[in-house]
Amino acid sequence: MQLDIDSRDGGLLITPQGRLTMVSARSFKEQVAEKIQSSSGSVTVIDLSQVEFIDSSGLGALVACLKTARQGGGDLRLAAPSEQVTMILAMTNLDRVLRPRATVAEAFGD
């Protein structure tokens, strides 16, 4: 899985590409946590528009990243999830915790 990481005014934009599965979840979680900790107290938006598939390990990584962000005084928001990711978030009720937004701009705007 490839990650694009950009600093933005008011936060961090992380754009993973590919599949967020058992194979890539650990590396994803470690890289994102490192970036979140170095930008303490800001909003982190994960743009899921290029994630074609997510499994339970990927969901666990997102929850761990949310925890890391909140412990540092910041927040983590999801943006533009694909249909498959939206369905998985809804089936697991994680859409209530992670509350995905339709666009990156909307995620930064809250």
From TrEMBL:
<dbReference type="GO" id="GO:0043856">
    <property type="term" value="F:anti-sigma factor antagonist activity"/>
</dbReference>
<dbReference type="Pfam" id="PF01740">
    <property type="entry name" value="STAS"/>
</dbReference>
<protein>
    <recommendedName>
        <fullName>Anti-sigma factor antagonist</fullName>
    </recommendedName>
</protein>
<dbReference type="InterPro" id="IPR036513">
    <property type="entry name" value="STAS_dom_sf"/>
</dbReference>
<dbReference type="InterPro" id="IPR002645">
    <property type="entry name" value="STAS_dom"/>
</dbReference>
<dbReference type="InterPro" id="IPR003658">
    <property type="entry name" value="Anti-sigma_ant"/>
</dbReference>
<feature type="domain" description="STAS">
    <location>
        <begin position="1"/>
        <end position="110"/>
    </location>
</feature>
<comment type="similarity">
    <text>Belongs to the anti-sigma-factor antagonist family.</text>
</comment>
